[in-house]
């Protein structure tokens, strides 16, 4: 166990957004070494969402700690003033670009390293054409513009079928059986990246993330909010994986060294198959609130096997029990949330 992980394991609570964002962006020694080996600047496409800000900051911090001078560039469809100021303080550039506009996309700096975060999930139902344009058409445009770069592109565990709860989760070798327009468009995204990886010899890593957590977002946050509101917990989708967002950030940056031709899928997932009922009961105890349940656990759920990712990118530092403690305290102290429910309980693919 590294010094960093020991310090995190001993941390009982997180009391401010500033402390949270510092932890989410704190690079491990392995990330610092990887960013020291990486050559050239880094651009993050879709950097203004849930993941982008802390990932960009970790890339900045790791590069600085490695003694590497490089540009870290974030790109978003809009430049929120608060985020622009935050990035400026952290020596991260933030560019505004509608990437579906070919001219705007072509104007972006062509750098050797690309992390692709652009995606549409929530609101996909009823906006299927836009969902497919963002999730499937845009990756082709990006590959054409960054044909001389290496890429890490975020995907999702939703490309898999629901898997038996006693099977350990889907592996990267399994046949993909997405359900619904969102999941199908995400498979389309992977296929487009893989096509251009093969035809243009672009090294690409595809990160199938399932599910990222921090104190403002994640399945445990959804559960804690329902418990505090006195709402029953539906346990039909009765099991899930949980990965701390800081761990996911570290793995994503290390994945740049493991991009290949053809594109290589890698699961990013927590190591445990967690019970919704069990986690809700633990949260209820931490929150000192009663909890009620509806439904009955189905024999399958959206689960991913992250073991390949651990071998390549390192093992997560933060365990689910630690996440639960931090999230419960955050909720009790009235900490802010992103207001973006995960909708993890959806079984028909309609987001």
Description of the molecule:
There is one protein chain. This protein is about 40% helix and about 15% strand. The protein is α/β, with parallel strands linked by helices and about 350 residues long. It has a single domain (about 5-215, about 245-270, about 300-315), classed as Rossmann fold, CATH 3.40.50. Strands 3-2-1-4-5-7-12 form a seven-stranded parallel beta sheet, sandwiched between helices. The protein has a two-stranded antiparallel sheet with strand order 6-15. Strands 8-11 form a two-stranded parallel ribbon. Strand 1 (about 40-45), helix 4 and strand 2 form a beta-alpha-beta unit. Helix 3 (about 30-35) runs parallel beside helix 10 (about 245-255), helix 7 packs parallel to helix 8 and helix 11 packs across helix 13 (about 320-330). The N and C termini lie far apart (about 40 Å). The model is unreliable at about 1-5 (pLDDT under 50).
Summary?
The protein has helices at residues 3-9, 17-24, 29-37, 52-65, 81-89, 102-106, 128-145, 180-200, 219-228, 245-255, 276-287, 307-313, 320-332, and strands at residues 42-45, 72-76, 93-96, 113-116, 150-156, 163-164, 204-210, 212-213, 233-234, 239-240, 243-244, 264-269, 274-275, 293-294, 300-301. It has 351 residues and is α/β, with parallel strands linked by helices.
